[in-house]
Write a structure and sequence with these properties.
alpha+beta, Alpha-Beta Plaits, two-stranded antiparallel ribbon, two-stranded antiparallel sheet, 2 helices, 15% helix, binds iron/sulfur cluster
Amino acid sequence: MRSTFFVTDACAGCGACIKTCPEKAIQPAPRGYPSPLLILEGRCSGCAECAEVCPVSACVELLLEEE
Ligand code: SF4
Ligand code: SF4
């Protein structure tokens, strides 16, 4: 099972995860997206550093079905 991370709508916009991500995978989300930030699946290495720094536990792991 592959996994990636995503940002939920609990995000408080502090920016800590953006600064922490070693892959620069976290970016502001476009208007209409359900959460303020999005994580580029192709860049995310699954290191979980964003989840460790997030004060509101808004960065969470997402398991992906194999295709
Ligand atoms: S798990 Fe790691 S690589 Fe993926 S978005 Fe979080 S900090 Fe970046
Ligand atoms: S660290 Fe958490 S609260 Fe801060 S910007 Fe990232 S997801 Fe949002």
